C-alpha cells in the first residue's frame, strides 16, 4: 500500500500542539511515518513537495522533511499529463498547489492521499481517482476498522 502525504501532513508535527486536534493528527502522522520507516507503507514523493519544502523558512523543519524523499518508493516529476490532471482538480475549486499534490499522488499510484486540510478533503470526496482522508481516519484503515 502506498501513501502520499501533502505538505500539511509533513508540517503537522511542527505546528502548535496546544490544540487537541493538532496533537491527535500529529500522533496519527507519526504512526504513518513509523509504518513508512518499517516498510509497511510505501511513500510517494513529488516535485511539488520539494518546491514547497524549499520555501519553508525554518531550516530544521526543511531538513527534517527533505529526508523523507530518501524513503520514497516513487518520486514524481512534472509531465503534461500530470498538469492536465491537476487542472481538472483546479476546475473543482481546489487550489493549484493542492491540485498538483493530488495529481502527483495519482500519477504515483498512491492508494491514499493524506492531508489535514479539511477544505481540500471535502472537495476530493466526490472524485474517484484516489481515496483522500485525514491521517486519523487512515489509522482506522490500517487497523482494518474503517
- Helicity, in percent? 40-55%
Number of domains: 1
Order of helices and strands: EHHEHHEHHEHEH
What gap, in angstroms, lies between the N and C termini?
16 Å
CATH superfamily: 5'-nuclease
Can you list the strand order of the major beta sheet? 3-2-1-4-5
Biggest sheet statistics: 5 strands, parallel
What would you call the shape?
globular
CATH level-1 class:
Alpha Beta
Mean model confidence by pLDDT: 96
Structural category is alpha/beta
Number of helices: 8
Structural descriptors:
single chain, 8 helices, Rossmann fold, five-stranded parallel sheet, 146 residues, globular, 5 strands
Describe the protein's architecture and organization.
It is a single chain. The chain has 8 helices and 5 strands, in the order βααβααβααβαβα. It is α/β, with parallel strands linked by helices and 146 residues long. It has a single domain (2-142), classed as 3-Layer(aba) Sandwich (Rossmann fold). α7 links the parallel β4 (112-114) and β5 (131-133). α2 (20-38) packs across α8 (135-142) and α5 (80-91) packs across α6 (96-107). The longest helix has 19 residues, at 20-38. The chain is globular and about 40 Å long. The mean pLDDT is 96.
Amino acid at each position: 500500500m502506498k501513501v502520499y502525504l501533502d505538505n500539511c501532513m509533513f508540517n503537522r508535527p511542527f505546528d502548535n500542539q496546544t490544540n487537541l486536534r493538532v496533537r491527535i493528527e500529529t500522533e496519527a502522522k507519526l504512526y504513518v511515518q513509523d509504518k513508512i520507516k518499517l516498510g509497511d507503507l510505501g511513500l510517494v514523493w513529488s516535485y511539488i513537495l520539494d518546491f514547497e519544502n524549499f520555501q519553508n523558512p525554518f531550516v530544521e523543519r526543511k531538513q527534517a522533511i527533505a529526508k523523507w524523499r530518501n524513503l520514497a518508493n516513487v518520486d514524481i516529476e512534472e509531465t503534461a499529463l500530470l498538469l492536465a490532471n491537476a487542472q481538472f482538480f483546479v476546475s473543482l475549486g481546489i487550489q493549484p498547489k493542492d491540485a498538483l499534490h493530488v495529481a502527483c499522488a495519482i500519477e504515483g499510484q498512491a492508494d491514499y492521499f493524506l492531508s489535514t486540510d479539511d477544505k481540500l478533503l471535502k472537495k476530493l470526496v466526490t472524485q474517484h481517482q484516489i481515496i483522500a482522508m485525514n491521517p486519523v481516519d487512515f489509522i482506522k484503515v490500517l487497523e482494518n476498522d474503517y
